[in-house]
Specification:
- It comes from Dokdonia sinensis.
- The structure is a single chain.
- This protein is α/β, with parallel strands linked by helices.
- It has six helices and nine strands.
- Strand 4 (72-75), helix 2 (87-107) and strand 5 (112-116) form a beta-alpha-beta unit.
- Helix 1 crosses helix 5 (193-205) and helix 5 packs across helix 6.
- It starts with 7 loop residues before the first strand and ends with a helix.
Length: 227
């Protein structure tokens, strides 16, 4: 059992999304966490004595900086080309939010920061969306937080069927493709959102000694997690 003095305060960005929501549910049950601060632009459904909900604009640090204290930051914020076709806004979300909050975390002495990114990113890519995530990963490491973790799943499975157009078809296609992904291709298998959430919770309690957490390690960390 975790002693009261060792219990952590977590900050979650993106609790209204799939992975962030699953992670929040885990932390509320986990005795290692005394408080869960949810930074969100709209009220959530989480009602629990551990929850401190801060309504704010994540694109504007001044709307939440006084509340940004704790032990670990979980950044589950992200968008897609379909949801955010405007490149400037996309960059502000997928690059700006992680970098700005990491800098604030560093200034406030928070020693664990993790963000959900994806496989195949590169700061040198000619493709804007791939390059943006790659630049975010590169610059996040430059912030210098003691324990920085970049969670790099392939396709994230576990979304509701009506979450986005073509979801059912995509799930079926990935199920077939996963069967053939062995050997070097194994790292490209689809990743369950629940495994990502469990892996992040485990990392907060038992940090690894390297920043990039890819598919196979996500799965093993998920299996190691205990509430």
């Amino acid at each position: 059992m975790t002693s009261p003095s060792n219990k952590k305060t977590a900050i979650i960005l993106g609790a209204t999304g799939l992975t962030g929501g699953l992670l929040t549910e885990l932390l509320l049950k986990d005795s290692a966490f005394a408080k869960v601060k949810i930074l969100t632009r709209r009220p959530t459904h989480f009602k629990h004595e551990k929850v401190e909900e801060i309504i704010c604009n994540l694109l504007d640090v001044s709307t939440f900086e006084e509340h940004f204290t704790g032990d670990v930051v979980f950044c589950c914020i992200g968008t897609t080309k379909a949801k955010t076709p405007d490149k400037e806004k996309y960059h502000a979300i997928d690059y700006g939010i992680p970098i700005n909050t990491a800098q604030l975390a560093k200034a406030n002495g928070i020693k664990i920061y993790m963000v959900v990114s994806s496989m195949g990113t590169s700061a040198k890519s000619p493709f804007f969306y791939v390059r943006t995530k790659g630049e975010m990963e590169r610059d996040l490491l430059k912030v210098g937080i003691t324990n920085t973790f970049i969670i790099k799943p392939a396709f994230i499975n576990g979304r509701p069927d009506d979450d986005r157009k073509g979801e059912k078809w995509l799930k079926r296609m990935m199920a077939v493709m996963d069967f053939f992904m062995v050997g070097p291709l194994k790292k490209w298998k689809s990743t369950q959102a629940e495994d990502i959430a469990r892996a992040m919770a485990q990392l907060a309690k038992s940090p690894e000694d390297h920043p990039n957490i890819e598919n196979q390690e996500i799965k093993s960390l998920s299996l190691a997690y205990r509430v």
